[in-house]
Specification:
38% strand; Jelly Rolls; alpha+beta
Length: 146
């Protein structure tokens, strides 16, 4: 029988992602660095971005065509300037960015084992910018465990 995990150690670190506009920024390395700095050996890492027009994604990190395909699919599913949207205060990509963020999410939880993120061979962590223009996005990593 395994004993329940007690979170006797909690650490939190933040960093800024400078996006180039719509697209993906891999953030696996800074998240991994935050986990290493926490000294947690077994636990969980919670990754969160406090924005409404970008999201976090755990996905394929070997073939960039996967991310390009996702971008094309979302362009078809949630097009900029769609007449269905009334909220366009910041331009035709405003409401579509909010929809994309809601559909994909602003937080992730990843297990930590041996002081490292327990990611699969082809998994990477990405901030997905949904706005056309560049932005500065804050990401917070909270690590709990022992």
């Amino acid at each position: 029988m395994t004993r329940p995990l007690s979170a006797d150690h909690v650490a939190q670190e933040g960093f800024i992602v400078h996006t180039r506009g719509r697209g993906f920024s891999e953030i696996t390395a800074p998240v991994s660095n935050a986990v290493a700095a926490s000294h947690v050996q077994v636990g969980i890492a919670s990754i969160f971005t406090a924005h409404t027009s970008c999201s976090l994604l755990l996905g394929e990190n070997a073939d960039p065509a996967v991310r390009e395909d996702l971008e094309r699919w979302f362009a078809r599913a949630v097009p900029d300037g769609d007449a269905i949207f009334r909220h366009d205060a910041e331009g035709p990509d405003d409401m579509p960015a909010h929809v994309r963020s809601i559909l994909t999410g602003v937080s992730l939880t990843v297990p930590v084992h041996g002081g490292k993120l327990l990611l699969g061979t082809w998994q990477g962590i990405y901030l997905w910018e949904h706005r056309i223009d560049p932005h500065q996005r804050k990401v917070t990593v909270s690590v709990l465990g022992h």
